[in-house]
Design the sequence.
């Protein structure tokens, strides 16, 4: 009887968990460990040689000047994207929660850039930067816009930052709005009766009480911008002359064009470690500022 | 009082003008999608002379829009439905059967949520390529299930923990088995999480480029992001049809958004907090 119940339980577990477990193991876990092992081997598409070579793939990655330059480029891109998108999102959210008419419509409107994926986003902005802005620049003599931004490295960098921030800001705004709704009205009222001006209220109360939302938003914007690929492909295609290749773009090229799978995988793992380290550090540091209402 | 009113009006105006500027890129693409390429190059900010759909007809045909749309639709639909079903079942199991192995698996899934796709893609292509399983929509759906399961399990797990066990007990007493209890009693209660998860997963899978670009190799299997990319790569200077292609790619999600906007906004804010 007891054994029967046990069997029955195993049957239930297989029924409820079987499909999910199978997909998770076969699509995620196995590739994850194969990938980890791959970075320590000599594997190449021609030799299919799985012999262990220690850390030499990782050493190779750190010797690769191109990859290091692109990693640095990625870090600058992430830094400005995170700052600009969060700044924009924070103030749009603040304005929308302070009694603007048609808040619901405005909120829905600012969110729309998030309906499109990186490929469409990139082509949309490519048209603006390579056609519309130079047209305006020539017509009105704005030297800044006269040539396409995508033909110079510095300006293409800003094109990437602007396009990403445009999309991210609407997403983060939603999270900030949810965060602000946790700020109790009576605390704000008490503060304004006590004679605190708006700036003080913003700095001392709203900002401090929305730390959890800020942590989430910075976390999200960090990981999304560190891993950008589609936009990079469609907006600049890494150009001009490979100068705007972000880390993921480099990894995809390394693996699937140069067929250097093991090194590409080592780069992917290094990228993952960097993202995880930065994301955890920021949430650890910011959480210290958290206060209870 | 008057000063406050003026500042209120000012704030409203700024927010609406701001939104207009914010959405200007969309407006420009829509306007230009009705112009001949030559007019577009002469003046990309003018109002179109007439609203003529020839660019749309051309783009529809050349990028094989219908096929891309159907591929994307089927892949998104089945992936999202199956992620929701399997994740709900697993989340339920993890709450009701507190075995050690289940706890370990649950934490493995939590850890997996932090691993970016970039770390999986190279071995994934190696393994599935070796097995000859690439270039299949079914395999792609299976992969989306694998990648989508952890977040789903996490969200359902949190919600099911809050459902009282008594509800199920009474159904067992009535003679229902686990499976029936789950489908008839528990699943209907999960609606709020199902909606949130559906929103997050539809936006992700519909617009995804990197994974399908590695898996779906033949043109017949292309999803909309892939066919947009292919179209732009091969007609790089023919702006009229290109703009029409962008508008057509955006429209399906936009329609869905207009119908479900409140759910989408709610889904995003709740998904992020968790």
Sequence:
């Amino acid at each position: 009887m007891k054994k029967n119940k046990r069997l029955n339980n195993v049957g239930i577990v297989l029924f409820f968990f079987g499909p999910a477990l199978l997909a998770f193991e076969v699509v995620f876990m196995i590739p994850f460990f194969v990938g980890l092992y791959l970075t320590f081997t000599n594997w190449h598409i021609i030799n299919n040689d799985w012999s262990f070579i220690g850390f030499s793939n990782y050493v190779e990655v750190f010797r690769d000047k191109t990859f290091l330059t692109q990693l640095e480029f990625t870090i600058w891109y992430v830094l400005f994207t995170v700052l600009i998108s969060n700044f924009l999102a924070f103030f749009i959210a603040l304005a929308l929660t302070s009694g603007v008419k048609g808040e619901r419509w405005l909120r829905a409107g600012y969110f729309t850039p998030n309906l499109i994926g990186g490929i469409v986003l990139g082509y949309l902005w490519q048209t603006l930067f390579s056609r519309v802005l130079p047209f305006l620049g020539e017509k009105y003599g704005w030297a800044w816009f006269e040539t396409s931004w995508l033909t110079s490295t510095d300006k293409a960098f800003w094109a990437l930052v602007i396009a990403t921030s445009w999309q991210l800001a609407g997403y983060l705004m939603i999270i900030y709005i949810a965060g602000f709704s946790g700020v109790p009205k009576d605390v704000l009222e008490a503060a304004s009766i006590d004679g605190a001006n708006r700036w003080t209220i913003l700095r001392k109360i709203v900002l401090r009480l929305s730390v959890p939302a800020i942590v989430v938003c910075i976390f999200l914007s960090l990981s999304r911008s560190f891993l950008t690929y589609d936009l990079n492909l469609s907006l600049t295609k890494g150009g001009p002359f490979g100068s705007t290749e972000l880390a993921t773009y480099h990894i995809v090229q390394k693996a699937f064009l140069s067929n250097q799978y093991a090194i590409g995988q080592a780069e992917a793992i290094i990228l993952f470690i960097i993202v995880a380290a930065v994301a955890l550090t920021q949430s650890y540091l910011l959480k210290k500022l958290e206060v209870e209402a | 009082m008057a000063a406050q009113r003026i500042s209120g009006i000012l704030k409203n105006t700024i927010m609406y003008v701001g939104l207009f500027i914010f959405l200007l890129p969309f407006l420009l693409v829509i306007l230009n999608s009705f112009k001949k390429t030559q007019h577009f190059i002469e003046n990309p900010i003018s109002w179109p002379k007439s609203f003529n759909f020839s660019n749309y007809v051309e783009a529809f045909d050349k990028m094989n829009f219908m096929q891309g749309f159907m591929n994307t639709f089927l892949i998104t639909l089945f992936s999202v439905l199956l992620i929701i079903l399997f994740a709900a079942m697993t989340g339920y199991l993890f709450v009701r059967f507190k075995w050690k192995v289940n706890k370990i698996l649950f934490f493995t899934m939590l850890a997996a949520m932090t691993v970016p796709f970039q770390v999986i893609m190279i071995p994934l292509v190696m393994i599935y390529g070796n097995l000859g399983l690439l270039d299949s929509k079914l395999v792609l759906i299976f992969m989306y299930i694998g990648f989508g399961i952890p977040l789903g399990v996490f969200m359902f797990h949190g919600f099911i923990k809050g459902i009282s066990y008594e509800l199920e007990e009474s159904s067992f007493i009535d003679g229902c088995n686990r499976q029936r209890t789950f489908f008839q009693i528990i699943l209907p209660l999960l609606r709020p999480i199902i909606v949130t998860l559906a929103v997050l997963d539809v936006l992700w899978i519909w617009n995804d480029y990197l994974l399908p670009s590695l898996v779906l190799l033949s043109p017949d299997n292309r999803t909309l992001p892939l066919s947009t990319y292919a179209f732009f790569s091969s007609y790089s200077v023919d702006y009229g049809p290109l703009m029409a292609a962008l508008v057509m790619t955006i429209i399906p999600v936009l329609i869905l958004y207009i119908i479900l906007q409140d759910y989408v906004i709610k889904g995003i804010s709740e998904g992020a907090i968790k």
Observations:
- The mean pLDDT of chain B is 90.
